[in-house]
Specification:
alpha/beta, Rossmann fold, Dehydroquinate synthase-like, alpha domain, 2 domains, seven-stranded mixed beta sheet, 13 helices, binds zinc ion
Length: 387
């Protein structure tokens, strides 16, 4: 059995059933009245009922807020803040997938500030406007292995009014304790295992390709990609495989640790598409991945060689990595084109402009223009991978 306690990049407990001790970890973090933030589907699940029951038995004044939708909105955060303040809570349990964890982080940041949530958009030094003393401590319990939001210092929230996804950032919204319990992810259906797993891969791959100098992040991303190569297909085919589920949870946290180095064009386009079409973020990244790699090829040949050698691919170069990714997508039944999930080219120009101005675009190895982003998007709609 894989068990570990790490303190980098925050306190992380990895063990089967470690979430059973949630109440104890709350108490250790000085939280006596936590607000548990989750989505409406998980709210009805046995795992949430069990966690609530155990916390109440331990004397915690815990309450549930389950009004988080996929791609959480500013409205979701406002409602959550109301619950947090009315319940006089002193900390947050982020329980669920990336949407729940992102929403929990945004609530923790903005609940007690005099400024509104959007004032903390990840631009310049906006985060310095926050009063750090009143940011609520968070314990994160991910139930998917993909976003790695549990070790991130940012939250992606949709501004409904302007139909854009905004990145909210503050170093203090990194959860104080993360519980990686693989038993919480065994029930994840195959399509979600695939989409979230490919999101984890896209974080590591984009971080690895990003040209900024960050050798620590680069090393983390390489090993995480090796783990994903071996264990994502296993987790997909055999959901109850605890070892595969554990490795995927850890690879997912590694991805979010690594992408402090930067993300890239997959995320720039996926963020834009997510705001306009509301598709699953991981699925969008999975579909976009080969098209973005192809567009980046002139700048990533050397790195793809290094990645190919580390993964021990028979063809340790760009073509070999591309082949591996296309095969992996097939094994996971990921559609090859955006058209396959109902996205057409009608809004291509707008998507191109949104992607070029997305925060993730700055990490891409090639600084694409809006027109180039439109071209990549159109190729992903049509399935045009080669010139
Ligand atoms: Zn992502």
């Amino acid at each position: 059995m894989l068990e570990a306690q790490w303190n980098y990049p925050t306190a992380i407990t990895v063990a089967e059933h470690c979430s059973d001790k949630l109440a104890q970890y709350c108490q250790e973090a000085g939280i006596s009245a936590p607000l548990m933030v989750t989505d409406p589907i998980l709210a009805d699940s046995k795992m949430v009922r069990n966690a609530l029951g155990a916390c109440r038995l331990s004397g915690l004044a815990i309450q549930l807020f389950s009004g988080v939708q996929g791609n959480p909105t500013g409205q979701n955060i406002e409602t959550g803040i109301r619950h947090y303040l009315e319940g006089q809570h002193d900390g947050i349990i982020a329980f669920g997938g990336g949407s729940s964890i992102d929403a929990a982080k945004a609530i923790a940041l903005a609940a007690n500030q005099s400024l509104s949530l959007w004032e903390f958009e990840d631009k310049g030094n906006n985060w310095k406007k926050a009063d750090t003393d009143v940011i609520a401590p968070i314990i994160a319990v991910p139930t998917t292995a993909g976003t790695g939001s549990e070790v991130g210092r940012a939250a992606v929230i949709t501004d409904e009014e302007h139909q854009v996804k905004k990145i909210i950032f503050h170093p203090k919204i990194m959860p104080v304790h993360v519980l990686l319990d693989p038993t919480l992810t065994t029930a994840l259906p195959q399509p979600l295992t695939a989409a979230t797993g490919m999101d984890a891969l896209s974080h590591n791959l984009e971080a690895f390709c990003s040209p900024s100098y960050h050798p620590m992040a680069e090393a983390i991303s390489l090993e995480a990609m090796r783990m994903i190569m071996h264990y994502l297909p296993v987790a997909y085919l055999d959901g109850d495989n605890i070892q595969a589920r554990t490795h995927m949870l850890v690879a997912s946290t590694m991805g979010a640790t690594a992408f402090q180095k930067g993300l890239g064009a997959m995320h720039a386009i996926a963020h834009s598409l997510g705001a306009v079409y509301n598709h699953h973020h991981g699925l969008l990244n999975a579909i976009l991945m080969p098209y973005v790699l192809a567009a980046n090829q002139p700048k990533i040949n050397e790195k793809m060689g290094r990645l190919g050698r580390y993964l021990a691919l028979t063809q340790p170069n760009f073509d070999g990595v591309m082949k591996w990714i296309l095969t992996l997508r097939q094994e996971l039944n990921i559609p090859h084109t955006l058209a396959d999930i109902g996205i057409d080219s009608q809004q291509a120009q707008r998507i191109g402009e949104m992607a070029a101005s997305d925060a993730a675009a700055s990490g891409n190895p090639v600084p694409f223009t809006a027109t180039q982003y439109t071209d990549i998007f159109n190729r992903a709609v049509d399935g045009t991978l080669t010139n």
